[in-house]
Amino acid sequence: MNTFLETLKGLLDTAGVLTGKDTAAYCLDQRRRYQGSALAVARPRSTAEVAAVIELCALHGIAIVPQGGNTSLCGGATPDASGTALVLSLERMNHILEVDPENNTMIVEAGAILADVQAAARAANRLFPAEWAASGSCRIGGALATNAGGVNVLRYGNMRELTLGLEVVLPSGEVWNGLRGLRKDNTGYDLKQLFVGSEGTLGVITRAVLRLYPLPTAHATALVAVSDPAAAVELLRGVQAAVGDRVTSFELISKPCFELLAKQCPALPHPFSPLPEWAVLVELSDGGDSHALTDQLAEVLHALACDNALLAQNSRQARDFWQLREHIPEAQRREGVSIKHDISVPVGNIPAFLNECGQQLALAFSDASIIAFGHLGDGNLHYNVFRTDKTAALYANEPAVNDIVYSCVAFHNGSISAEHGIGQLKRYHLAQYRNPLELTIMQQIKRVFDPKQIMNPGKVLID
C-alpha cells in the first residue's frame, strides 16, 4: 500500500493527494447518514491525471469512489468504512472550456459547479436550464452521474436530455472521447447514455458537452391555492393547453410544508392566510416582456377559475415565492430526522398515490406526518415522513415505511428513484423493484466496463 501511495503522489502535485485527517470531509455524505474512511483522496487537475490515477488503481486493485460536490442524497459518493478505497475528487477540474452560442452548446469539466455553468451561459446570452437547490455546490459530473433533475425538467428535461457528448475515463485508464456537440448522430450505439445515471460505477466522467437554449427575457410566476392534488393536475393541464411549453416549472406544495416553513424559517414571507391545503408554484418563461406574460398568466388563471392565486408583480416577489419552495428541505433539516423518498409516478396517478399511501401510513404509524412536495409537472414527488421521534433512531422504522411507500409507488407504475439516484440507500430496493432480466443486463454491462469491479463498489447494484 505504501508503494501505491508513493506512486500516486508522484502522479499529482503536492495538493493532489490528501491522507489522514485531511480526508474526513470527503468521507461523510451530505445527509450525515454514511460515514466512511478512505485510503487517500486524489485531486487531479486534468483528464490525463485522472487516467493515470485510474490506471494505477487498476494495476493495484484499489477501489475508486468518484466524487464531485459531495452533495449526494443517497450515499453514492461516500466510501465504505474499510479505508481501502481511493476517493477521486474532480473538484479541481472546474473549468468552463468553451461556450458556442451559434451551436447552443458549451464544454465544461466535470468539476464545474452548476451555478458557474449557468453564469457562463448567461454571459453568452444563453440558458443552461438545470436548476435545483444545491446549484451553488453541486458539480456537473455528479449531476450527470445521477441524471439529476430539478425544477425545470417539465420543459427542458433531466441532465440526460441536456447532454450531447461526454469524455469518460474507463476503469482501465483508457479515455473515451465522445465530446460531440451534435443533435443528430446515428453512428452506432449512443455510448454516453450508459454513463449518464451510472453513478460512477462504469467510469469517471471528466468533460461534457451541454445543451444551451436562448435566454428567456420574460417570466411570469404565480402561487396558486388548490383544493387537492387532483385540482392541481387539472390546473396543470389547463395552463399547458393555454400556453404550451412556456410552462417551465409546476411545483406542488402541501399545507404541512407551509406550516413547517413558518415554524423553522419565520423570516421568509408567508403570503397565504389562512393556509391552503395545497398550492402550486407556476412559472412561465418566453421571449418578450414579463409584464405581458404575467398578464397572460393572470387571464389563464382567471379563465380556469383560480380564486386564490397570487401573481408576482416583479422579480423580487417571484424570488420570494421561490424562496418558499427552495427552503422546504432546509426547514425539514431543522425540524429533525425524517424518512425521505424521491419517487415518481405518472402525473395523473399522483392524487391516488398521495391518498392511498397517506392512508396506509396513518394505519401503520398513527403519529406519522407527511411532508409532500415536488415537481408535479413531471411526476416527481419528494415524499418525506416524520414521526414523533425526530432523531436518528427513527431510521429503525425506515424499512417498514419504505415498504408502504414503495409498494404504493409500484402499484401506480412509478419509480423508487426519480432524480437522486440509487447510491447505497436504495440498491436493495432496486433489486426488489426492477425485474430480474433488467438486473442481469445491468450486471453484464458492469462486468464489461469494469471487470475488476473497482468502480464505486457498494453502489447501485448488489455485488
Mean pLDDT score, rounded?
96
How large, in whole angstroms, is the Cα Rg?
A: 23 Å
| Helix content percent band | 25-40%
Uncertain segments = none
How would a textbook summarize the main sheet? Answer: 7 strands, antiparallel
Q: What is the total tally of β strands?
A: 18
General shape: globular
User: Beta-sheet strand percentage?
Assistant: 15-25%
* Largest sheet, spatial ordering of strands: 15-12-14-13-17-18-16
Keywords: FAD, Flavoprotein, Oxidoreductase
Cofactor: FAD
Protein name: FAD/FMN-containing dehydrogenase
EC number: 1.-.-.-
Explain the overall architecture.
The chain folds into four domains: 2-89, 2-Layer Sandwich (Uridine Diphospho-n-acetylenolpyruvylglucosamine Reductase, domain 2); 96-214, Uridine Diphospho-n-acetylenolpyruvylglucosamine Reductase, domain 3; 218-330, Alpha-Beta Plaits; 336-420, Alpha-Beta Plaits (2-Layer Sandwich), CATH 3.30.70.2740. The protein contains 15 helices and 18 strands. It has helices at residues 2-11, 47-60, 114-123, 140-145, 153-156, 192-195, 229-243, 255-264, 290-303, 315-326, 328-335, 350-364, 398-411, 427-433, 436-449, and strands at 17-18, 40-42, 64-67, 86-89, 96-100, 105-109, 126-127, 163-169, 175-178, 204-211, 213-214, 218-226, 247-254, 278-286, 309-311, 342-344, 369-375, 380-386. A hairpin with a 4-residue loop joins β5 and β6 (105-109). α1 (2-11) runs antiparallel to α2 and α12 packs antiparallel against α13. The longest helix is centred in the middle third of the chain and has 15 residues, at 229-243. It is globular, with a radius of gyration of 23 Å. The protein starts with a helix and ends in a 14-residue tail after the last helix. Its cofactor is FAD. Belongs to the FAD-binding oxidoreductase/transferase type 4 family. Keywords: FAD, Flavoprotein, Oxidoreductase.
